[in-house]
Design goal:
Layout (H helix, E strand, L loop, with lengths): L3 H20 L4 H9 L4 E4 L2 E4 L2 E3 L6 H9 L7 H9 L2 E2 L7 H5 L24 E6 L10 E7 L5 E6 L5 H11 L2
Parallel strand pairs: 3-4
Antiparallel strand pairs: 1-2, 2-3, 5-6, 6-7
């Protein structure tokens, strides 16, 4: 059971949010929508609700307090924390949480040291290939296969159609280059 101090603190929070809602003149259109019951907005005891969730205005000092309270359980990642906040509150731009931004984990493996390529010694002994996709379709072809000889810098451009396979690419390489 919450102590008397905790209950009085919670009531103070609601009073401060009510005051912030009244001070913010940019919320006039939202208040009008709430009074008319449009777009999921409603008003209860001077508090704005968006789809049944308490709206905390940006000018309110409680925006960061609400997000910080969601972190009291621990930081389980940005998505879980935002899900916890969004369950009861509607906060504009709530993805800009400082704690979440600082605790982001890198999802990629660390890159190794750069290794330079060996210098080619003869023509067509070392080739570079790449695909250029997303081009407008012309005669059923929308992809360009680029093949460049690293020694002579000679380039070949071969049109391909989607879907292409490793077999079809090998066939085109042998037909047009070899």
């Amino acid at each position: 059971m919450p102590s008397r101090r905790e209950v009085s603190r919670r009531l103070t929070v609601f009073e401060e949010i009510r005051a912030a809602l009244q001070e913010d003149s940019t919320l006039d259109t939202v208040r009008n929508k709430a009074q008319e019951g449009l777009d999921g907005w409603s008003m209860t005891d001077g508090l704005l609700l968006k789809d049944g969730k308490l709206f905390v205005p940006e000018i309110s000092s409680w925006t960061q307090a609400v997000i910080a309270a969601a972190h009291e359980v621990g930081h389980e990642g940005i998505q879980k924390t935002l899900h916890r906040v969004r369950a009861d509150f509607c906060i504009p731009r709530d993805s800009a949480c400082c704690t979440c931004q600082q605790n982001k984990t890198e999802q990629l493996r660390p890159a190794g040291l750069l290794q330079s390529l060996e210098v080619p010694t003869s023509v067509w002994a070392d080739n570079a290939m790449d695909f250029v996709e997303g081009l407008p379709r012309v005669n059923g072809k929308s992809v360009i296969l680029t093949v460049v000889d690293r020694f002579s810098k000679s380039a070949h451009f071969i049109a391909l159609g989607h879907p292409y396979t490793d077999t079809s690419v090998a066939r085109v390489l042998f037909t047009d280059i070899v």
